[in-house]
Amino acid sequence: MDDTRPALRLAGLRKDFGRPAVDGLGLVVRRGEFYALLGPNGAGKTTTLRLVTGLLAPDAGSIEVLGIDLAGAPAAAKARIAYLPDEPMLYGKLKPFEYLEFVAGLWGVRADAAEARARELLDWLDLSPHAHELTEGFSRGMKQKLALAGALVHDPELLILDEPLTGLDAAAARQVKDLLLAHVAKGGTVILTTHILEVAERLAQRIGIIRQGRLIAEGTLEELRARTRGGSLEDVFLQLTATP
């Protein structure tokens, strides 16, 4: 595997649902990068993530994950990805530790390594006191944290998250943000969408902004500020996505 290739490369990506949801999208996310994909409602963010994770098939274009063509070798590409959707599904009759062991088993993680990783994640996210409770009784925030632990239990190289902070209080959001930063610090890559622009401003190393399924701006916050009248990311975002 060529480690000089990016974590994600999209070229000419297109998906139509009666109208283009993703319209010739091209972008590159580097390895070890925290990348925020932003856009107004209906811009094509979630559709893009579902295409990248293989949940949808593109109508045109190519997707390369860590040097692997998704269409040509889907199993190999997906093995290096974890995806956390905005409405994660858990197994309500499983306890957190059981859930994490189950997910780790699906990824082929050794039992001893899975146990150690599960305990580490539950501790980090303050879920250890609830490790022997059924997840069906968890709050939305607790479920969101457990789903994130499930996404991280096999230590994926590319972590893709769609609105990961939805429903979290301030303390839980801080835990999740710290965990994502730690993943990047270890060399992992994170791509996330969020409507909480302060999160993207604080965490992301580079930002891509899409509108109507097309990439309209990309770069560091300072680079995006240079293209506009400056200000916060919210100011920059509103300037770039304003209807011409």
Q: Could you give a short description of this structure?
A:
The protein has helices at 45-52, 74-78, 96-106, 111-124, 140-152, 170-185, 197-203, 221-226, 233-241; strands at residues 8-16, 20-29, 34-38, 60-65, 68-69, 81-84, 158-162, 189-193, 206-211, 214-219. With 244 residues, the protein is of the alpha/beta class.
Overview of this structure, please?
The chain is of the alpha/beta class. Helix content is 36%, strand content 24%. The chain has helices at residues 45-52, 74-78, 96-106, 111-124, 140-152, 170-185, 197-203, 221-226, 233-241; strands at 8-16, 20-29, 34-38, 60-65, 68-69, 81-84, 158-162, 189-193, 206-211, 214-219. The strands form 2 sheets. A 6-stranded mixed sheet has the order 6-7-8-3-9-10, sandwiched between helices. Strands 2-1-4-5 form a 4-stranded antiparallel sheet. It starts with 7 loop residues before the first strand and ends with a helix.
Name some characteristics of this structure.
36% helix, single chain, 10 strands, 6-stranded mixed sheet, alpha/beta, 4-stranded antiparallel sheet, 244 residues
